[in-house]
Structure formats: C-alpha cells, structure tokens
Write a structure and sequence with these properties.
The protein contains 9 helices and no strands. With about 180 residues, it is mainly α. The protein has 2 domains: about 40 residues, no CATH class; about 110 residues, AhpD-like (Up-down Bundle), CATH 1.20.1290. The longest helix is centred in the C-terminal third of the chain and has 23 residues. It starts with 13 loop residues before the first helix and ends in a 7-residue tail after the last helix.
Length: about 180
Amino acid sequence: MALIQTVEPDKAEGQVKEIYDFMQKNAGVIPAPLQLASASPKMLDTVWQSIQYYSRHPSLGFGLLSSIRYLVAQQYDYAFCTGFNKNLLKMQGLSDEDIDKMENDPLQAPLDDKDRAMVAFVMKAVKTPDAVEKQDVDKLHEQGWTDSDILDALAHGTNMIGSSILMKTFKMDQAC
C-alpha cells in the first residue's frame, strides 16, 4: 500500500478518470507512476502533459523512447518501469536476447544508427554526466539530431530517475 493517498481507478472522477480511461484503453494498464501523481492534481497534469508531449514528439519515436525508459529503469532498479517497458519492447518485436544485448551495450539496441547513437548518449549521460563532452553532442548533430531533440531525450531519461525515487519512497514500485 502506498504511503500517500492516490486515486484508485474505481474511484477516479473528472480529469483523473479521463486520463485513467485513456491509459487503460491505449496501454492496457494505468501506469503506477501516473497513479502516484494523482495524489497531486498539478503533478498529475504535469505528468500527463509530458506523456502527451513525448507520444507526439516529431523526432523521438516510440522504439527509441521505450528503449531509453527501459535502460534507465533497469540501471536504477526501477521494477515497475523495467517490467512495463520490457513488455513494450517485446510488443515491438524485440526478443529477450535483443533486450539483453541492449542492456550490455546500448549501441546494440535494435534501432537505426541515429536512434542507437541517442540511446548510447542518454545512457552515458545518466551513468556518468561529467564524462559527456562536446564531441558526444557533435556526434549526435552529425546524425541529424537537434539540440532540442538531445535535451528532450535526456530529459526523458532523467525523468525516469526522479520517478524511480518517488515510486520507491512511497512504496509503489512493484513489478508490472
């Protein structure tokens, strides 16, 4: 049981119900981080806006974003999002072997070269931010990524770290 009161799906009303219904219909589940955010209407709105932003991102595709979320969640032992995103990766056709290779080396992610470069950059930044140098960003520019794309991808990854801490703190991080 969570340490703070969240809105249970069967008790949801108004905007919370609309968001829960949308997620249930489109993802088959109400992600636990979204339910945690329901404890604060403003936080829920912020999380929901972020979900909508990334789901419509003009450059960062579903496979890339799922890979980033999975790898960051796995790195931070974030049970819910590791399981949730692993399932999303499998729904996209990845095998356990593909996922294991990606865990060991983000450059082995079954994505195109451009997306693999972004995944590798995000993981380097998440693991060792002080090691990131201008040449890392230059390589992404050479692949066709903009500064906005780079910031958005890294923010997507770092948001997983904050979410992991929140979920663990409030005892909501159960495997999916």
